[in-house]
Each structure stands twice: as C-alpha cells, then as structure tokens.
Amino acid sequence: MSAHYKRVTGDAVEYEVFARKTRVESLHQVGSVVAPDDDLAMAYARATYDEERWCEMAIVRKDHLIELWQPRETS
Amino acid sequence: MSISELVLSIADNKQMLGLRYAEWATRAPSLEADIAAAAMGLDDLGHSRVLYGCLELLGADPRGPERETDAGSLCALPYFDQPWTSWAQFVAANAILDTAFSLMIEACVNGSIEVLQHRLRKMLMEERYHFLHGRSWLRSGIEKGPLHEAWSQAIEWFGPPDGEVVALHREGLLSMGPPYLRTCLEEMLETRVPKLTIDWRSWSGPRRRNRPGGIDRHTFAMLRGLKERRFLPEGQRMPS
After folding, report:
1. Any idea what DSSP says for residue A71?
2. How far is B95 from B102, CA to CA, in rounded Å?
3. Phi and psi of B77, rounded to 5°?
4. A32 has which bridge partners?
5. Which of A23, B149, B169, B232 lies 20 to 30 Å from A32 when distance is taken between CA atoms?
6. What's this model's pTM, rounded to 2 decimal places?
7. Could you tell me if B129 lies within 8 Å of chain A, comparing CB atoms?
8. What share of chain B is helix, strand, coil (3-state, %, to 5)?
9. What contacts B218, CB < 8 A, 6 or more positions away?
10. Mean pLDDT per 10-residue section of chain B, whose length is 240 residues
11. Closest residue of B to A37, CA-based?
C-alpha cells in the first residue's frame, strides 16, 4: 500500500524541493523533505540535495500545491 | 592574543563541532536531521581546513608540536571535550556555539585583514543553513542544562570586557567586539543570555575557556591518525 504511505507525523509537513543547474533550464522537482517549519525545511533541503551544483533551489509546502487532477483521474 | 591565535581557536572549535555533528549522523530524531547533521559536520570540517590554511598567511603560525601528542593543547571549548549524549546538547551547540563562531567569522570578514575578508566569506553563506537548523530546533524547546552551558561557553569564548578581542576590534582587525557579538547572538536567536557568573581569573586566553582538560582520548587519537596505525601491515610506518 505504498500509495498511502506517509512519512509525515505530528506537526511536520511535507515540502517539495525544486532546483535547476543553469539559468536556461526550468526549475524541476528533485525530491522532498519533511519538516515542522519553513526554516528547518530549507536547512534539510540544502543538506539533502546539495550534492549537485544548483544555481537555484526552492521549496514549497506540498499542501500549498493546487492539484488539477491526479493519476487515474481524467481531465 | 594575535589574530592568528583567534583564527586557530575558531578552526579548532569548528573541527570539533564538525566531528561531534558527524557522530549524530545516524542518531538524530529523523532521517532529515541525520542528513543535516552529516552535511553540517562536513561543512564545519571543511571550514576548519580553510581556517588552518589562513594561519601561515597571518604571520607566525601559533601551532606548536605539542598539538600532536597533547589533547590539552588544542583550543576547543570544554563543550566538545566529550561526545554528546543527548540531542539537546547537539541543538544547543548548533544554535548557540555554531552561531557564535559564525559571528566571529563575520567580524573577521568585515575587518581589515584582506586574506580573511576573501577566504572566509563563503563560510557565512553555508552557515546560514546551520543557523536556520539550530534556531528552528531551539524554538521547539530543549532542556535548560545544555542551553545554559552553551550560552556560558559562547560568552566566555567571545572574551572578557577588557580582553584581546576588544583590542583587535579597536585596531580594526575585527568589525565587532564582545558586547556587540553578544547582542547579535541574542537577537539572532530571539532570546536573552541567561544570568551567568563568569570567573575571568581562571579563564585561559589562548584556549578561550575556563577549565583545563581536552578532548577525549578516542577522538584525539582519531583526529591525529593514531588509530590508523593499527591497520598497517607489521613493520610498516605511517607516511609522514
């Protein structure tokens, strides 16, 4: 039941991490982190995904994403 | 105290901070915190290398041969003498001591010595994430004991009100002196220094600490490569 697996417990929330290596490419999702606040999420994102030389990195709370549809749903 | 002795103190403390962080890379409360501990450990070990590399350029290198055999000759704070046994110790060091070291580095970067202005600037960018990590965990609340210890040692490390750091600041080599460093630390961490009684008479200027002793034997042996000798084939010596 991996689709229902959640690492989020307590006050922590999930953040999606986006990055790009050069100015000409678009930001793309590189992973996610779980943290109780934005500051810690920034620290975790930088620590976890810093192995590449990103020119830009950004995070967004997953619950702030506005979903249009999900897998198996039609538009 | 010369500026090179102060830089050596920052380097020794960052080296030990890095090692103590790394010891928590598989013991922190979450996977993310494990990774952050490992990453911050690597950062601080790297920073210590850069700081050691500045010593010769600053004039007489204050490192003597006793550092190879005597743990008590290193300049790290008592907070790093033993491995931390609780997460609260980690958080207090991360929030208070790491930030105190960063503020002193900032004082060097904005001071008048060119080599420090250039070589230490990048550290401050990396340290921003150490600060965010430490402050966030600090906000979540930790035990008073490690917190009080870290505050006390940070204020001691900044130095006495009439000490050498004051003189270095007056000469323009540092952009901040102890009172302002303390105020900045309080403001950044959004908290006040607890009531402290510091006996400056027993304070050691070169080591910037109030009690004798040094890091534990195991860590010192690892740091000096002494343990590697056990794995050498019989009769072979370590390369010098």
Report:
1. T
2. 11
3. -75, 155
4. A16
5. A23
6. 0.89
7. yes
8. 65, 0, 35
9. none
10. 94 98 95 96 97 93 92 95 97 98 98 96 96 95 94 96 94 96 97 90 89 93 76 67
11. B136
